[in-house]
Amino acid sequence: xxxxxxxxxxxxxxxxxxxxxxxxxxxxxxxxxxxxxxxxxxxxxxxxxxxxxxxxxxxxxxxxxxxxxxxxxxxxxxxx
Length: 80
Known about the structure:
The protein is mainly beta. It has one domain (3-74): SpoA-like (Surface presentation of antigens (SPOA), Roll), CATH 2.30.330. The protein is built from one helix and four strands; from the N terminus they run βαβββ. It has a four-stranded antiparallel β-sheet, with no helix packed on it. A hairpin with a 2-residue loop joins β3 (53-63) and β4 (66-74).
């Protein structure tokens, strides 16, 4: 396949750090500055998704004032 055909295709990249569950009433009471605790530690891997499809896992890294995800392993993508 010619890679030039895909060069202008945009994807939404999401990095999932962790998750949690809470009752809706607790979510509705949250305001600015509220903290949501996740089921993750600083040592855990993050999941990297493209258009909501899992493509890799990685690690969080800090570069100056920016936060980034470094890909450590790609995930095999199966055909639908």
